[in-house]
Amino acid sequence: MVQLHFEPLCEQYLEDLQLLWSDPAVIRYTGTPEPYTLEQTRQKLHRLQQSDVFVILQDHVFVGIVGCLCIDNKTVQFGLFYLLKQSVWGQGCATASVHWMLDYMNQKYKHPILYADVISENTASEKILKHLHFICQSESKPVYHAGPEAIVRHYVLHPTI
Which residue has the higher pLDDT, 91 or 32? Predict the structure, then answer.
């Protein structure tokens, strides 16, 4: 079992985030066309601090971020996202992080509805979402992403009442 720790996103992790958002292998799944500069990372960090976003630490070392951005506060709808360093891919960190985030959101909000978009070539993320009972509700027409044509699948997790 992967042992992770989660802390609220803060400026202390700016350089780690910049490395994450400038890694072509990581951002190819995000719709980000170009690696982030340090200033772009700082601006994004400040925007994300307004939401439920956490850094993921493994043995006190930054390995990624996980969070939910508010889509509609009135209807308690959020967009789930996560990014992890390549060095921890395939180790269960993403599944554990998303599971933790779902628990956090269910404790903080009454019956949240969570959405997640996945580029079709990101089969690992699709497996995680399906494992955690997200349902694919639709998909986009083919779009040009960071390379070949791709389809974006739109998943939803309705609250358990």
Answer: 91
Q: What is the pLDDT of residue 30?
A: 79
Please name the helix (run of DSSP H) or strand (run of DSSP E) that holds residue 134, with its range, or none.
none
3-class secondary structure, 117: strand
Distance CA 95, CA 92 (A): 5
CA distance 81 to 146: 18
Alpha-carbon distance of 136 to 80, in angstroms, equals 14
> Is residue 19 classed exposed, middle or buried when 0-12, 13-18 and 19+ CB atoms within 10 A define those classes?
middle
Mapped onto helix, strand or coil, the DSSP state of residue 83 is: strand
| Rg for the chain, CA atoms, rounded | 15
pTM of the shown model: 0.91
143: left (phi over 0), alpha (psi -120 to 50) or beta: beta
Strand 77-84 versus strand 113-119 pairing type: parallel
Distance, CA of 1 to CA of 30 (rounded, Å): 27
User: Contact 124/84 with Cβ under 8 angstroms?
Assistant: no
